[in-house]
């Protein structure tokens, strides 16, 4: 992160803190979706649980890695920075769907899909910045996590697509078990 922080340390910490807030929320989203699917006992949907658990663990790793980076840069992970407030506001609607009593499977995955689109875009932005700043280490670390986000996004997209094919086209579809 050395090259990146030469430009504006506070802004880099702000961006990472916003990401941390989102990833932390992401873990809670996955936990809630997993718990709700278990309770629904739909055999087709139980097949996706293993994959969701893996992605939940990856979001947890993202959260922990970001917290470590912020501390190493001299930041405080408990501070509500500008981007923390923004990412929290942005993810509020998604949390409304997934964390409350809504048990409609399409609603849950549609909201998770929206979360992963934002998740993906934010890591992509960090990668573009690291690239522009010529920060090879940061670039490598961001790229690794963006690759994981690509899988999360692809999987959510596939589930939403199959649920839509089932409900709109009346097709007998199987849920994906991997992206
Ligand atoms: Fe993530
Ligand atoms: Fe993700």
Helix content: over 70%
Q: What structural class do helix, strand and pairing data support? A: mainly alpha
Heterogens: fe (ii) ion
Termini separation: 31 Å
Beta percentage is: under 5%
**H-E string:** HHHHHH
Record field, number of beta strands: 0
* Computed CA radius of gyration, to the nearest angstrom: 17 Å
| Average pLDDT level | 94
Counted by DSSP, the helix tally is 6
- Molecular shape: elongated
Low-confidence stretches: none
User: Tell me about the biggest sheet?
Assistant: none
Provide a descriptive summary of the structure in words:
- The protein has 6 helices and no strands.
- It is elongated, with a radius of gyration of 17 Å.
- The chain has 179 residues and is mainly alpha-helical.
- The structure holds fe (ii) ion (2 copies).
- One fe (ii) ion (FE2) binds next to helix 5 and helix 6.
SSE layout and pairing:
Elements lengths: L1 H39 L2 H4 L2 H24 L9 H18 L5 H29 L2 H34 L10
Helix pairs in contact: 1-3, 1-4, 1-5, 4-5, 5-6
The structure holds fe (ii) ion (2 copies).
Brief synopsis:
The chain is mainly α. The protein is built from six helices and no strands.
Keywords:
mainly alpha; 179 residues; binds fe (ii) ion
């Amino acid at each position: 992160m050395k090259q990146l922080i030469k430009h504006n340390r506070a802004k880099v910490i702000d961006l990472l803190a916003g990401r941390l807030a989102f990833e932390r929320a992401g873990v809670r989203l996955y936990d809630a979706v997993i718990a709700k699917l278990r309770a629904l006992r739909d055999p087709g949907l139980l097949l996706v649980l293993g994959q969701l658990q893996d992605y939940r663990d990856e979001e947890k790793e993202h959260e922990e890695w970001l917290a470590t980076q912020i501390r190493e840069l001299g930041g405080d992970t408990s501070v509500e920075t500008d981007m923390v407030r923004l990412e929290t506001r942005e993810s509020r609607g998604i949390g409304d769907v997934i964390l409350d009593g809504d048990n409609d499977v399409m609603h849950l995955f549609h909201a998770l899909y929206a979360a992963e689109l934002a998740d993906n875009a934010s890591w992509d932005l960090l990668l573009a910045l690291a690239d522009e700043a010529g920060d090879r280490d940061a670039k490598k670390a961001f790229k690794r996590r963006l690759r994981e986000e690509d899988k999360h996004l692809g999987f959510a997209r596939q589930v939403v697509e199959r649920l839509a094919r089932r409900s709109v086209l009346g097709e007998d579809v199987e849920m994906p078990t991997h992206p």
